[in-house]
Amino acid sequence: MRTLKFLIFVTFCTGCHLSAQEIQLQAPALSGKDAKLYYFTGAKVDSLVSVVDGSGKAILSIPGKDYRGMATLVVPGSGGIELVAAEPVVSVQSSASQLNTETVSFPSSKENSFLKHIFTSQSRYMQQQSWLQAGSQLFDAGSPFLTQLQPELDKVNASMQALDKEISSSSLYAARYYRLADFMNRLFDTEQKRDSERAALIRREMEESLDIASLYRSGQLWSSVLNFYISLFNHTAGTDKQQQYVASVQRTLQRLPAPYYEAFLAGCITETERFGWREAQDGILAAVHPQFAPSIRSLQRAIGAYRAKNSKEMPAIVGLDNTNETYTRTLVAFYDSDCSSCVNEMFRLVVAYPQLKEKGIRVVSVAADTDKKKYEKGIKDFLWTDKLCDFRGFEGENFSNYNVVGSPSFYLLDKDNKLEGMYFAVSDVEEAIKN
User: Fold this and answer.
1) How far apart are CA 432 and CA 435, in angstroms?
2) Contact call for residues 390 and 396 (beta carbons, < 8 A)
3) pLDDT tens digits along 148-188
């Protein structure tokens, strides 16, 4: 499975071309069809859609002026191509009924031309090198054929060195993307061979110099690098592999500004989930600043779960008004009006409320409703003041911040907003308070 994933990646790299902020498709044979553009920020994928008009034209514009990274242009049923947005405008032209690297051209694109030049030249040089090296093994040491092969091999090696220098000196995104692809290839090779010495070099490169900003918009390459990076520790580190991974992630995060910090953090947490590395996940999240407010939902839930599990200060409830009253504790009740068990437990909460209020406990209800009329009908019998709903369901900010995965859920917080306990029934809340 891991080898298959890498082969898909290689195919992706060797077939890609470049694009721009505004993609101008000219494909008469595709008139009347939808053209879809996908572009990337970390693990997030955004999309644009435009209909190819009667003359075969479609324009798709990526918002803003600063996108420099991979994109994918697809016409459903008619193929697609990989792109990179790095120029103000790129024209994509095709006279065929199918979009692929053979049928598409990119007039006047330095980025496209350079990337094609890199991969075409590299492929040719590697084939020549392979043939010449294989040929040299077919003859005895004194054979006159070897004297002819060696100069040719030297020429190929010199050409490869010249190409490397050309790539290193270029400021184009195509060159940056190639260097990232080269890092991925070295990472994969090191992980497969379980080479601890090379793993140390890969780790240093990740922590100190890898171009995360360009990786952030590289599409599939982003998730591939993060996946194989954690696997590198799994295969080359010792019994303390999770601790080593945490240390490496933290060193890398220290050099990352927004938005790369959040995306890299979220990506690493996702990988710890996949590997079942709970110790590593807790170690990474332990270093996150208490005031850090992520926008990525999966990261919000991971931080919420960590804080709840470790009795950390819980996030402030969004939309909750300040009060002059003094409370000993706060009970946050998450529910959904479409859930019969939720309705029953909220009725029990109404019954228990006078005793809770007498004990100085503030009750805050947060609904997962998306229907305003149903929500307002449901709260008419609630006796407490603080009733909230943002009508975004379980994707709402409070549900995400508290990592609520099922309802009803009751969170009992102390006066410092630290979690005392999480419960699924009002009777359990009452028992906890009594004890």
Assistant:
1) 5
2) yes
3) 777 888 888 898 898 889 989 999 999 999 999 999 999 99
